[in-house]
């Protein structure tokens, strides 16, 4: 098994890509309220600064600045992912029925520990086959690198063809930054709406 080594904690912000196991799922957007609450509770327990965040149907991108006294981002992501998974299971389970009652539009839910183990299905580390086991992170080297990754977050919905302008995607912290006057005119073009970044 590969030995994944993460760099030593740094005061520079960190860019993340976090994905669902099922590519093409729309669970993150369909259940954005559950994700927001998972992030809100994690922020309450283990604060950090959200510099950018965009949620797409099956993955999300974020840039965080962590406190020097508590730079452990792996534990924070673990809490967000496990809270989302738990609350999603509660929402999708039909009252009084067993695990076979999970809707077919999110079939990986039914393949978790409640349905019995099957070869090749991952149920360890509290992720229960909803999330990819690991996430990708990049420690920003300097302010220019940070700005590039923030812009990458904002532009990702355009890259995937969901919208034609970054500000047209509602589940993005760009709306918070438009409201605060941090975004150049070419990145905006629409009035800010309530979005994922509003909790920050």
From TrEMBL:
Domain Transposase IS200-like: 9-156
Single GO biological process annotation from the record: DNA transposition
Organism: Roseicyclus elongatus DSM 19469
Name of this chain's protein: Transposase
PANTHER family (alphabetical): REP-ASSOCIATED TYROSINE TRANSPOSASE
NCBIfam families, alphabetized: REP_Tyr_transpos
GO molecular function: sequence-specific DNA binding; transposase activity
């Amino acid at each position: 098994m590969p030995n994944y080594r993460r760099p030593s904690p740094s005061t520079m912000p960190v860019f993340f890509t976090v994905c669902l196991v099922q590519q093409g799922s729309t669970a993150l957007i369909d259940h954005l309220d559950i994700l927001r609450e998972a992030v809100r509770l994690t922020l309450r327990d283990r604060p950090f600064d959200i510099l950018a965040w965009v949620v797409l149907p099956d993955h999300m991108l974020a840039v965080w600045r962590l406190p020097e006294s508590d730079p452990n981002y792996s534990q924070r992501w673990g809490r967000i992912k496990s809270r989302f998974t738990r609350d999603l299971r509660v929402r999708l389970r039909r009252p009084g029925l067993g695990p076979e009652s999970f809707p077919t539009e999110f079939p990986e839910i039914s393949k978790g520990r409640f349905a019995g183990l099957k070869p090749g299905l991952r149920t360890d580390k509290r992720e229960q086959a909803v999330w990819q086991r690991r996430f990708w992170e990049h420690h920003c080297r300097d302010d220019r690198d940070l700005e590039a990754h923030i812009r990458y977050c904002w532009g990702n919905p355009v890259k995937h063809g969901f919208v034609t302008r970054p500000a047209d995607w509602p589940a993005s912290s760009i709306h918070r930054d438009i409201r605060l006057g941090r975004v150049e005119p070419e990145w905006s073009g629409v009035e800010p709406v309530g979005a994922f970044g509003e909790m920050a």
